[in-house]
Amino acid sequence: MDRWRLIVDGPLQGSRNMAVDYAILREVAAGGTPTFRLYRWYPPAVTIGYFQVREDETDAVACAAEGIPVIRRITGGGAVFHDHEITYSLAVPLEDRRVAGTVADSYRIIVGPLIGLLGDMGIDAAFRPINDITVEGRKISGSAQTRREGVLLQHGTLLLSVDYDRMFRYLAVPAVKSSGRNHASPRQAITALDQWISDDVSDRSFLDELTGRMADAYAESLGVVMSPGGLTAREEEQSLSIEEELFLNGHWNDKRKK
Amino acid sequence: MMQFRPVELKREGEKLLRLYLTLEGDTIARVRITGDFFVYPEEAIETIEASLEGMKREEEELIRRIETLIRSRGIQLVGISAETIAIAVVMAGGG
After folding, report:
1. What is the DSSP letter of A124?
2. Residue A39 predicted with pLDDT over 90
3. Structure ipTM
4. What helix, strand, coil percent values describe chain B, rounded to 5?
5. Could B36 and A50 be called an inter-chain contact, meaning their C-beta atoms sit closer than 8 Å?
6. Cα A25 to the chain's mean position, in Å?
7. pTM of the predicted structure, to 2 decimals
8. pLDDT exceeding 90 applies to what percent of chain A?
9. Mapping DSSP to helix (H, G, I), strand (E, B) and coil, where does residue A257 land?
10. Whole-number mean pLDDT of chain A?
11. What is the maximum span of chain B, computed from C-alpha positions, in angstroms?
12. How far B32 CA lies from chain A's nearest CA (Å)?
C-alpha cells in the first residue's frame, strides 16, 4: 500500500498556511511524497480565490481595523473567513488515479471521505457540486483545487463553529449570489459542526480526535497509509520565500484588482 | 475610454462572475474577469482577457474567440463558460 505523508499543524498565520501548502505542492512536483495536511488558523484570516478582487469580496476597513489579513489563494473559488475550522490539504501527482481525473470528478472524490466521516458522526452531509459539502442545504465545507507543475493540490475547510457577525462584517456578500440560492440570510446559508453534535468543538481532545479521524478517513477511503511527518528543510525554506513573495505581498494579493 | 460599472452574473450551475469592462469607442479596450469560479491553468485568465481586447461587443464572435482559445491552449473553465463571459461583456457595455 502506498505511503503518504501526514502533517498535522496547529494554528498558524494565514499567509504561512497558504505558503506551506504551496511549498508542499512544489515538493511533490519534485518527486516528494504525496501529502495530506491538517491545519488551523490563528489569528483568523480571510482568503479570497485566485480570480477575486480583495476590495470586492471584503470590507477592507473592518478587516484592517480588526487585524484580519486578506490573502489571495493560488486556488480559485470564493472568499472564506477562516476562524474556528479544520482545514485539510491534499497534494498528489496529477497522474495518481485515485484522485485525479476531471476537475469535477476529483472534487467529488476528494471531499468523499469528509462526507463519510460526517455521516459516521451522525450528520447527513451531501456533496453540492462544484465544491461544497452541505448539511440540510447549508454549507459546512468548501474546497478549492489547483493543478500546476504536474500536481493536484486541493484544500478545504470544515467549519467547527461560526461567528456569523464577524464573518459578515469582513465578507461582502454579492446580492446576486445570496439571492440565487434562495436563502433569506447568510445564517441560513452556512452552518458548522457544533450545530449538529453535542461535543465541545473547542476542546483540545475533541480536536485531536477529529484530526485523527479525518486522517483515518482519507487513508481508508484512498487506500493509503498515512505516515506522520513534517516539512523537509527544503520545504521550510521554500515556504518562507513563497510567503514573502506571494501571500505577504500586496502585489500578489491585489493582482486581480481592476 | 469609458469604464463601465461591473456586471455581476450568476447563471444556473455556475459560479458568480463579476466582469469589468473598458471600451474605447465601440471596441473592447480592457476586460477583467473576476469571481469565485475556477480556470485551469489559472494564469490563462489573463490570456482570455487579452484575447478580447480590440474586439467588438458581439456575443457570437466573443464566444467563438474564447472557445477557440480554450481548445488551442487546453484551458479548462469550471463554474464559468465562454457564453457567460460573452453575455457579461455585452451586458457591461449596456447591451
Report:
1. -
2. yes
3. 0.96
4. 35, 35, 30
5. no
6. 14
7. 0.96
8. 91
9. coil
10. 95
11. 34
12. 6
